[in-house]
Queue: 2 jobs
Job 1
Amino acid sequence: FTVTRLHGAAIDVDRERLAVGQGRAVVVNSGNANDSTGERGVRDAYRMAELAAERVGIPAEAMFVCHTGVIGHYLPMDKIEAGIEAVELSEDAGPDFARAIMTTDLVPKHCSVRFGPYTLGGCAKGSGMIHPNMATMLAYLTTDAPVAQDALQTALSEASDRSFNLITVDGDTSPSDTVLLFANGAAGGETITPGSQHYDAFREALDAVCIYLAKAIARDGEGATRLIEITVNGAASDADARRLVRDIGTSPLVKTAVHGADPNWGRIVGVIGRSDVAIVEEAVTVAVCGHQLFERAVPIPYEEAEVSRAMSGDEVTIEVSLGAGDASATGWTCDLSADYIRINADYTT
C-alpha cells in the first residue's frame, strides 16, 4: 500500500482486512478516489466492500476495496450500489476489469504468464500521479498456484521494489496506491514455500508480470509519447542506484529533452551532480540510446543528428555509471509533453 500519510479511506479498510485474515476478492471504482473524505469516506468504503461481498457470496471481511480518481469527493453510493448489482460475473472478464478501472489511461494494461503447471496474471491502471512508494496506481495479480501467504507477501514486496517502486510519471504519489496478489490454489499441488520445487519459477513469473505492468504504466503516462528506461550502474549501494533512477526520472529538463529528441546530456549530468549519491567524478559515464556522450569528466564527440534519430523512437534508454561500487538499478518513466499540462490543467474543470 501507499505510505503517504494522507491516504485514501480504502487503504485503512484493506490494511485491516489483511491483518486479520485472507482476502478473496477486490471491488474497485474509478473516477472518485474517496480520499480526504473523513469518517463518511471510511463508512462508504466499508459499505462498498459489503455490497460487493454480498454480490459474490463471500464474507465482507474477505473483500478488499479500492478507489481511484478525483480527491476530495464523497462516493455516490446510489451509483456504487447500482453498479455492483449490474456487474455480470464471468470467468473471462479480466480484460473488462482492466478497462473498467481506467481513469486518464489510454489503454488497459494486463498480461499473464505460465510457470510450471500454473498461471499468473495481472492488470494495472495508472497514467498520472505516478510515483509509487508501496512500502493514482492500482495493480491486481492472481495465480492458481497454492502459494503460502507468507511467501506471497515476501515475493510481492520484493517484486514491487523491482518494478512498481521504480516507475515515475510526474513525481507525485497517489493516496490510493495499492498492489494486491491473490493465490487460490485451484490448480492443486503441494503448497509453494521458499525452497520448494516451484518457488523460484513463481518469483520469476511474478517479477515478469510486475515489470511488464510497471513499464505499461510509465509508457501510458499522461501526455506521454516515449517510454524512458533508466539504468544506473556502479553505485555505492542499492539505495543510491534507486535514488538516482528516480531523480533522473523526475527531472522535467531530462523528460522534456527526451520529448524533443534532444541529446542534451548536460541535463543528465546536472541531475547526477545534485543527487545525494556517491560518485567518482572521473569515472562517471552517460550514454543515451547506446551512444556514449560523456566519460571521464569530459564530453565525447558524437553525431548529434544520429543520436536525435535514435531518440525519436517509442523507447529511449539512458545509462549512467557512477564508478562508486557494484550496485545497479533500472527504472522507467516517460517524456513530458504539453499534453500533460493540458490534461492536468483541465482535470476537474
Job 2
Amino acid sequence: MKKAITISVITIIGLLLAVLIFLSIRSSRIVYNNDNAIGNSAGNLNNGGLFCEYNDKIYFANPYDYNKLYVMNSDCTNAMKLNDDSVASINVCGSYIYYVKNNFKQETIGTIFRGQLFGVYRCNLNGESLKALYDSLSGTIALSGNSLYYQHYSDTTPLAFHKVDIAGKKDTKISDTPYSPACVHNGTIYFSDPVGKHNILSYDTKTDKTSVLYDCNSYLADVENGYAYYIDLSKNYSLVRLNTSNKTLELLYGEKGNKVVNYNVYGNKIFFQVESTDGMTGLYRMNIDGTQIETIAIGNITNIHCTSKYTFFQYYEDQGVLYRVSTSGADTSVEQITIK
C-alpha cells in the first residue's frame, strides 16, 4: 500500500512539473505579426512616439508621472499605469508593446528627447515580461512586420540604421547613415535623406534595397494613401504633398514669413506647427488637400500626437501639462487634460 501511495505522489508531482514546463514554454513563445504590420503612425513617431492607439486603447507616456508607460481607453477614461519605465517611441501590435526608455529628469523636461533615449524594449500589453532587445543608446524605433528598425549609437558609428527581430535574437546594421524609420507603409520605410540633397528615399524591408522616391529638398517625409507629404526646405519650409503615381506636386501651406516646422497627418486632417514673424506662431489644422485652415492654439507647440478621437499636444515651455482637441470634429476648442 505504501508503495502504491509513493508511486501516486511521484506521478502527481511529475504531472505538475510537466504542466509548469509547458506553461513556461508557452509564455515565452513569441507571437509573430503579419509581414505588413506596423506599430504606430509616422506622424506620432516623428513627434516622439509618446502616444499610440491600438484596439481602442491609447498607450502613452504620462507627462504627469515622469512619462511613465500608461494605457487608457480611446475616450481618455480608465487610465492605468503599466510599468515604471519612462518611455518614448511607443509601438504596439499584436501581443506586445515596444518602446525606448527615456533618461527622464524633471529639471530637463524641455530637452528629454535630445540624446537621452536608450535601448529597444518589448513587454506584454499589460506592461509585464519586459525584455531588452538592445540595451544601449538609441533613437526612434518603428515596427515593420517582425522587425524593429531603429537608430543605433555606438563608439565607432555615432548614429546608424539598424534592425532587430522582435525576439531579440538577431541585430543587423543596415546603413551607417542615420535614417529615421518613423514612416512605415506596406513593408517599405520612407524617409527624408539626412545627408546630401535630402531626397525622399524608400527602403524595401524585404529586399534591403534603398532607392530614390522623389528628387527634392525634403524634411519629415510621410507617405500616406498614395501621397508623400513633406516640408519643402527649398520653398521656405512650405508643407507640400506629392502624388506618388503621377508625380504631381501640390502646395498645401506656404505663406511669406511663416515656416512649417512640424506636422502630423491623420485620416483627412493635418495638424501642423507654424513658426511666424508676425505673431502667427502656433498649431493649425487643415484638410489633407490644404483647404479649411483652422487655428488650434497660439504659441510654441510640441509633441503633436493624433488618435481617432483626440489630438494631444503640449506647449514647448511647459511639457508637464497636456492638452487635447478633437482630431476631426467641428469643435476645435482646446481642453487641458489631467491624467492621474
